[in-house]
Amino acid sequence: MKKKKKEVRPQRTYKDTMFRMLFLEKEKLLSLYNAVNGTRYTNVEDLEITTLENAIYMNYKNDISFVMNFELMLYEHQSTVNPNMPLRHLFYVTKVLQSITRNADLYRSVQIKIPTPRFVIFYNGTQHQPEQKVLKLSDAFEKKLEIPELELIVTMYNINFGQNSELLNTCKTLKEYAQYVSKVRENAEKMPFEEAVQTAVDDCIRNGILADFLLKNRAEAIEVSIFEYDEEKHLKNEREYAYNQGVEQGEKRGEQRGRKEGIQILIRTCLKEGILKDRTLQVLEESYSLSREEAETYYTEIEGCITQNR
Q: What is the pLDDT of residues 172-219, one digit of tens each?
């Protein structure tokens, strides 16, 4: 397989995401909270924003954190599936809790009460994902414990238009954001991306989709949408590079041994490089003329062995 040259990317400064811009207003954020939790709170003064403005990860700040109903909510928007989000949320929630308790005496005999942390990801990437998915910090532990002594659970909602209809219909802004993204992608299939964004903005304003927001923030919304697309494209290139590297290494080592061992080496290499299962199965089918069922059997066997040995 031909080796793909890894691109060198210039450093970028932080930019807001479209999602974060939309939900900076307390009214819209409270609506989103109600949609996620099935509640009907109306007093925005009960909601306290706790987003840390100086906490940056991979050029993005954590999108939104806030306290509501004795809960510390951390909301994040993602256009790519990132298995490291529980670890990122662990780092971030620690900083938020440090900020909340900065004037408290941790050495007192009286227990300090803190809001209950909860973690949510709103996913709208192009990779197929279920309507709801749970990510756990313990999945990253090299040594598995029956009852992890430290755990952090993140719930990921697929907010692509047509998914999680009840959630989207309950929060008008979230639904219109999903419609906007869908329109941009539809346009991008037949025109340059910058034109696709501008056309989507015009169409949405004309049809009353995020109209007030887009009229007020047209230039910035277009700039941010293009920036997010550029970042998503970059991350996709990084994953493809790692994939090609992993497959190349697996095939090279496999050629030197028997067919079965070559298949096992390829699967182990792809798992080590974090390659998605579907892509691994695809290359197994192509490289070793396997049926999907045969590839699945090999994959499950090797994945199980790796899990048992941890």
A: 999 999 999 999 999 999 999 999 999 999 999 999 999 999 999 999
The gap from C-alpha 240 to its chain's centroid, in whole angstroms, comes to: 17
Question: What are 115's two structure tokens?
Answer: 């809001």
Task: Report the predicted TM-score, pTM, of the whole model to 2 decimal places.
Answer: 0.72
Q: Any idea what the Cα angle at residue 95 is, between residues 90 and 97, rounded to 5°?
A: 95
* DSSP-H helix ranges across the chain: 18-22, 26-37, 85-100, 165-170, 172-188, 193-206, 211-255, 259-272, 277-288, 292-309
**Under a CB-based contact definition with an 8 Å cutoff, are residues 42 and 27 in contact?**
no
In the chain, where the domains are located: 18-238, 257-309
| Strands 116-123 and 71-78, bridge-based pairing | parallel
Give the pair of three-digit tokens for residue 171.
Answer: 């929060």
Q: Which two tokens stand for residue 117?
A: 């942390």
119: how many CB neighbours lie within 10 A of its CB? 24
Q: Are 66 and 44 in contact (CB under 8 A)?
A: no
